[in-house]
């Protein structure tokens, strides 16, 4: 068990395994995502309330899911960084934060564009929109702090503390924003959620979500590899790797 | 097929601009993210290789202690 | 210079935790009173921010009455944010902080003592100032009283959460802006409940439950924030 744990923490081992894993992640992820999107755009039936604008859901929901779970994954990695000082964990946090920022932005953007035909406005201070916006700020703070600290080890641990403070706050922020929303504005607008989506709608959605997660995995791998190379560039195994010319 | 014709597919029942602009932003940003990640790794591999080649040419430099800084600033876009 | 020399007595193992916390607290208060301008600045800032709103938006009574509580809360939040930079900075520059970390007493309790001192010196004066500002933005008397109560419970939370950010950004370039970036998202729940309580009070609703929720925030912040800032302080000190 501990042997495995140790191996998992070794950058060299990770580099090797991720190089083998990445083509699969990319191919299967892209295939699933494109299948979901094409199915959703062209073949899924029209929503009787929102018309065709609902087809944005096939990218909006995957990005929104991923934006939140990426932060939670970062929080798990932050705990590992602080408790076990595992090198790969802080590489993960550093590599994934910009991806999370872009994906959160995408979910906000697609949400805003969806809102225009559905609610008649680009932006409303809806509880979910507001908490996603705050999530975007949290990602921004993590990236800013990481860039500001020069020493790599302290940067990793400071960022881990910040991510954990953020993750404790996320439920509080979510709860308070929902409370605030019901206080100030009775639910005039709600995402029209029908309790049972027909299968022709949720199957492509599920495909797109899965594909998005796999592509996220690919992005995390390649960015972690870059970071590992930067940190280990003086070591023997990196020398063997780059001189052999296989990458 | 949920649409009668290709032009109906493009107009999306009047919601075309919204649907296509959000899909456009999605594809552009995701592609940019993936390509920039690929290029950053390529640049990093090249930088490592160049380092080792330089060390090979000048034997005096190889046994110097490794540089005192480990953090490398890669252009982040 | 001798007047400003750290007034902390060497703490031996025989000194209890309470005694150590007390001396850290008293020292911070004493140092602050020797630099009175630093005490006054956040208050002046708060008054100026409040002044900007009638000038910038509208001096009409109806607008001010509706937005007043929010304006005062935002102004108080910003002044606390502004003063956070000083929380550890001077001690960091003259090395006192490293002595503090080396003490046998648990660091998070000493940090808690420092944070309490920070609140007494910044948050409490803001609460005292609030009735005057409340009258300036035409708030009714009942709302002013509730506003003071929410600030009394809310500003310690601001200081506690802020201490984490101050510890994380210690010794960095452009620490001030970075501190705001990190901390403002975390302040949002306190702001929402602070202004929400006043809004409920102005509609005549009972506010006991809201105040209890804010109290819960305070308890949560007191129990968790000192640990986080102590950890962050250790990281920042090992960095420099």
Automatic annotation (TrEMBL), chain A:
TM spans (from-to): 21-44, 56-84, 91-115, 127-146, 158-177, 201-221
Subcellular location(s) of the protein: Cell inner membrane; Membrane
InterPro entries: Cyt_c_assembly (IPR002541), Cyt_c_biogenesis_CcmC (IPR003557), Cyt_c_biogenesis_CcsA/CcmC (IPR045062)
Chief place of localization: membrane
Keywords associated with the record: Cell inner membrane, Cell membrane, Cytochrome c-type biogenesis, Membrane, Transmembrane, Transmembrane helix, Transport
Chain ranges of the Cytochrome c assembly protein domain: 22-184
Highest taxon, organism lineage: Bacteria
Protein topology in the membrane: Multi-pass membrane protein
Entry's family note: Belongs to the CcmC/CycZ/HelC family.
Function per UniProt: Required for the export of heme to the periplasm for the biogenesis of c-type cytochromes.
Protein name: Heme exporter protein C
TrEMBL record, chain B:
Membrane-topology descriptor: Single-pass membrane protein
Primary subcellular site in the record, as a coarse category: membrane
Bilayer-crossing regions: 20-38
One Pfam family hit: CcmD
Function summary: Required for the export of heme to the periplasm for the biogenesis of c-type cytochromes.
Family to which this protein belongs: Belongs to the CcmD/CycX/HelD family.
NCBIfam families per UniProt: cytochro_ccmD
Protein name: Heme exporter protein D
UniProtKB/TrEMBL annotation, chain C:
Keywords, ordered alphabetically: Cell inner membrane, Cell membrane, Cytochrome c-type biogenesis, Membrane, Transmembrane, Transmembrane helix, Transport
Location within or outside the cell: Cell inner membrane
Topological category with respect to the lipid bilayer: Multi-pass membrane protein
Keyword Mitochondrion included in the entry's annotation: no
Ranges that cross the membrane: 39-57, 69-88, 108-132, 144-170, 177-201, 207-233
Classification via PANTHER family: CYTOCHROME C BIOGENESIS B-RELATED (PTHR30070:SF1), HEME EXPORTER PROTEIN B (PTHR30070)
Protein family per UniProt: Belongs to the CcmB/CycW/HelB family.
Purpose of the protein: Required for the export of heme to the periplasm for the biogenesis of c-type cytochromes.
Protein name: Heme exporter protein B
Gene label: ccmB
